[in-house]
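Exercise: predict the fold of this chain.
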Amino acid sequence: ICECPVLFARLEVLNISGNRLTDACGSYLSTILKKCKGLCSLNIEHCSITSRTIQKVADSLSAGSVLEQLCIELNLNGLKLSKPVVDSLCQLVQTSCLSELMLQGSSIGTDGAMQLTESLFNGIQDFVKLDLSYCGLTSKYTLGFNNDMADSILELNLAGNPILREVCSLSIPRAFLCIKFYSFCSLL
């Protein structure tokens, strides 16, 4: 793709999920994101990449990007997204036109998820879908959620996080009532 200038103008969807990629692909993904001005969907789920590549991807997207969907899944046995990576993702959601961010299994953690959600609230448009399932979130995330944050998100998936069942079933913050769909399935 990087060696074919014709694709730079035509590429709209890139799904490379399920491939055994390494962090060496980060520079290629960066080039694709910078040169393919029409790219609106990138799926890099199940690719064995680390947070270094995710940071390169986030840093490569400019404010003028038309990317609407970014699917990331890191199932690397407890890999936690570092603070610089979370910071890059926060900057990305504030300046881009993303409508979906799929971070299931990324171990972003409660603090990182709160930082990201707050960034979504400060973003340039409403966010359609945020998937934070199996990310190690605690009840602190749901309790810290406010109405302003909920106005920016239409669909939120928190399944598989160790959020206390009592907090979710008895004390769902009013902010969650603004979200059209949310999933608490399989909570621990």
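Check your answer against the key: Helices lie at 5-10, 26-35, 51-60, 83-95, 109-121, 139-143, 147-151, 165-170.
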